[in-house]
Design goal:
alpha+beta; Gyrase A, domain 2; 3 domains; six-stranded antiparallel β-barrel; four-stranded antiparallel sheet; 7 helices; bacterial flagellum; signal; cilium; structural molecule activity
Length: 374
Amino acid sequence: MRALPFPRLAPWLLLVLLAGAWSIPAHALRIKEVAAVQGVRSNQLTGYGLVVGLDGTGDQTTQMPITTQAVQNYLQQMGITLPPGTTAPQLKNVATVIVTAQLPAFAQPGQFIDINVSSIGNAKSLRGGTLIATPLRGADGEIYALAQGNVVVGGAGASAGGSKVQINHLSAGRVPEGAQVERAVPTPLHEGNTITLGLNASDFQTARKVAQAINNRAGAGTATALDGRTVQVNAPLEPGARVNFIAELEELQVADATPAAKVVINARTGSIVLNQAVTLGPCAIAHGNLAITISSTPVISQPNPLSQGQTVVAQKSDIQIKQEPGIMMTLPPSPQLADVVRAINTLGATPQDLLAILQAIKAAGALNAELEVI
């Protein structure tokens, strides 16, 4: 069979294809994944309420007097007042709770949001309870939502005869769509001639790439990187056009910038995480173990017969020190993350020992990364 000739490309077409291949980023992200419009944010709401209808698993009012006081205040609002001198009721089916919620951006009156209910007393369980009407306030003290509904608890428990079995957590629950928005929070989205994009992480390279991507799409001078975390963008004044502009702007592709080299160390668990930019310079490490063992053995001293002495119990301590010989290891330069991990694994040290070793390597100037201890 005769082979078909491969078509030849014109020189100008070959240059266009090479230029296009060179411009395609290896890993691209959308602007919505690296930045957000400033002013478009959620707000925290909180309130104090009562969960009623519990099956004897509520607060012990003798230890939680605020539960009784809250019930009396609620009854007074309903027009019921206890006679003077009446003993405070001993409630077992009521629990005092804190209600929290996130008010999303652009939430309007009449919409429903999810709420979390958490016990603040000594209630054993909130399972089967009902949250009565609870106003949710913002940081300014104003009421933005009203919560009420049946509490859903993702757990179960039972106790009898001194035995107790419990699955998951019983003193906290959730009410899906349990709060209705009563007031909207104004946003500055449609104010001024510009909008501001706030990057998720401070990085001058990413800020410049975001501004370049917007200018390439909407024209030069549309976006300006003010600093490593803020990009100012000229936007249309008409609300509908501004929303369309932001929607298109969030879908623009931005090449992913290489992050700063960082090593994150969790001192409590011994976990160590390195990113791809970490490199290791040549260095030598001596690592050895020193073990000190202290053992105590009781020694009984018996008196001689007819000596009228007393038996004495003493302690004999034995201290042993064992030091393993240290081994000097040479770590070669490691320009890639895989090489760094391989070099660290050759030390054979425990994660707790690696915490001190990495800090010593950083102090010696051989670790090209920032150490962050959490």
